[in-house]
Write a structure and sequence with these properties.
Length: 490
Amino acid sequence: MERILYIPFDQLHAQYGVLKTANPKQDLIVFIESQRMTSGRPWHLERLFFLISSARHFAAELKSLGFKVEYMKAETTIDGLKQVKQQFGDLPIHCAEPSSFKQHSALREFGVIFHPNDFFLTPRELFAQWANSQKSYLMENFYRKQRVRLDVLMDGAKPVGGEWNFDKDNRLPPPKNYKWPAYLTHDRDAIDEEVAKELNYQPKNYWATTRAGALKQLDNFLKNHFANFGPYEDATTTENWALHHSLLSPYLNNGLLHPSEVIAAAMKRFKNGGIPIASAEAFVRQIIGWREYVNGMYWYLGESYRENNQLSANLDLPDLFRDPSATKMNCLKNTVSDINERSWVHHIPRLMILSNFALISGINPQQFLDWMREVFIDATDWVMVPNVIGMGVHADGGTMMTKPYAAGGSYISRMTNFCKGCYFDPKKRVGEDACPFTTLYWDFLDRNRESFSRNHRISQQLRGLDRLIDLPELRERAKQVIQLLKKGDL
């Protein structure tokens, strides 16, 4: 053996990262399942099962290809690497650049040799060049550059369909009496059963733990969901947990799928016909736009960015985020129940229900960030830090987003069916049955009036605040809501 190739659990692809130069005759491939990863925080067990079983399947796959593979358990990653060196000699350790500041620092200090992280379409240096040239970091500007650079949905120098963004066509509420196509379920094998036994957990069948299963998921999306992905991508309904969403983020984020192959497959399906441009563009924007933008911003904004709390939000994370029985709000009850069941909900419940509620109620951003990292199957540091601190709770004061994503009960009533039969009335601001979203939305604007006074994108809402004749009563109701929230009785 001449080299040790360390493979993090989010780099599970034989054609990318350090493995693309791997030689079975010269390299020892190492996976380390650290106790800190499995027991250091209250991780969702479905998330742990997915990550660990996927890594063990991938290790077995590499062995079948003739590689010498060591899959080991250790207290920490560094402890594991020390044990590997003791067993196999003081060989150089190589790894693709890690996807978090913490792991990057630990491995660098240990002397690991880094290779470029090519699990994304945009090198970190290239993103920094773009960001340095911007007055504000508008994702739309970055996305258009990506379309041109990667030649995706382009007709020469112009975008296919004549427009860069068809988002205005993709805001339909959940349809009535709609037949949603079935999603795949995934059988479990001996490796899955071994991991489940160790975790003392019975895993669900929503998520594949192999590359073959991830490819089946991609194929199922393209055949059965791609065409209607766009119109309902911002809707949420109790009638279906996934709608037409792809369910590919876990596989993209742990490496079982690479964004280049996902885009290539989507564009092939689009060119074959039958996929509306609004759906194709919406999906492309998620993969080459938002995903790449968030990763780029994570590295560009720096390690201290996660500590932002510029709205001074200090409410402790309420019980309802772990226990749906702690609230009568249908939207939060259903969303948290779905997370507890599957370790996943799509981007609108994450942004406009969970993050929106954290924002307008003043929950501490770092506590909310920790919870989001712990419960979602596709959560990684680079995903959650910009999405929560920047987009979700506006804790960075507008560095990423020019206005906070705050909304009252009317938005939830329009874009979901959660309000039907709920104890609370989304039209009411005050009173015992006033929707907490509606009450806290106006109270949020009132509390932060001075902070937002120069933000022209929220000036209309502030003028609406001035027209409220029941503002004194609303302030009192908001205090009551926060107290009920603290007691776990909202």
